[in-house]
């Protein structure tokens, strides 16, 4: 009997997503630098909205997210009718695959691309196709060369996770123009706000009918625990996604807090400025200790060690010092560690610990 009950094709191929560790046994004051969270947390406006939301717990939320979409439209100068809100940007990325790909279709992602992309492809029964990068940077020609008649979606994050690297707007536009006509380009802008003046691809979305952008409240807005994201795309695509989306996907609390967060751009600005300064400082400090990294455009750096063994030993040493970073073996980068840019004290602790580790003080 049970042999007859089988999950849909692809589901058993899924490797469970590994979240960043948050605790070290025996260390009471560990600093979590493994999930690219904002070290300052949520802004004041968002915290106050969260407190107020307690009065609405018995009410069903609106299904149209009108108020949040309006706030996003005003802040990012986008048509609210082209915006969809979801349970993290993960939900928007998933809705796109559910609506546009299935068994027999292919979904392209790149060599060190975000680990949810192949998971989502398998979830919908499509075939995940991994395309090489060039020295940890997305390679547009490699993606175009990998496209077939079966390609339905291409996921790229720009800036990318876990590499932190970016490709320029012209390259992204060249990718969009070169894709087969039945293929959608998904620009994952989870880290877009960390790049001064970067629109995450919004202008490209506005000028084409085959590009969708996703964004999140989990990173610079400091709301990873609440799970809110959004997408911006051509109206007909947003219409399709809204048909697949659960009507009550976002709670009153999520909606109210996200709206307050969008309106508190001072917190975003403060977080970006701090990240830019401390990221440069940390990268330089690690380089001085013989641990290089590519120039990062996000809120983390990908520290490169001499070997897998050295990266694992460095990870263990950092842990023993209460510093939790992310191993990137699962991303095909076993000799690297991804380190979130924390606050000043966290960055100093990381630099100091790496210095001790490399100096053999361990
Ligand atoms: C590149 C990228 N895209 C999407 C996400 C998912 O973000 P969310 O919390 O909005 O689902 C992450 C989270 O780490 C990410 O790094």
Automatic annotation (TrEMBL):
Q: Pfam families recorded for this chain? A: Aminotran_1_2
- Any idea where the Aminotransferase class I/classII large domain is? 30-354
One GO biological process term is: L-histidine biosynthetic process
Asked whether the keyword Transferase is assigned, the reply is yes
Q: Does the keyword Amino-acid biosynthesis apply?
A: yes
Write down which residues bear the modification named N6-(pyridoxal phosphate)lysine. Answer: 219
* E.C. number: 2.6.1.9
Q: Pathway membership of this protein?
A: Amino-acid biosynthesis; L-histidine biosynthesis; L-histidine from 5-phospho-alpha-D-ribose 1-diphosphate: step 7/9
What sort of enzyme, by top EC class, is this? transferase
Q: What does it catalyze?
A: L-histidinol phosphate + 2-oxoglutarate = 3-(imidazol-4-yl)-2-oxopropyl phosphate + L-glutamate
Cofactor(s) recorded in Swiss-Prot or TrEMBL: pyridoxal 5'-phosphate
Alphabetically, the GO molecular function entries are: histidinol-phosphate transaminase activity; pyridoxal phosphate binding
Question: Which controlled-vocabulary keywords does the entry list?
Answer: Amino-acid biosynthesis, Aminotransferase, Histidine biosynthesis, Pyridoxal phosphate, Transferase
Assembly description: Homodimer.
The record's similarity note reads: Belongs to the class-II pyridoxal-phosphate-dependent aminotransferase family. Histidinol-phosphate aminotransferase subfamily.
- What NCBIfam families does the record tag this protein with? hisC
Q: What is this protein called?
A: Histidinol-phosphate aminotransferase
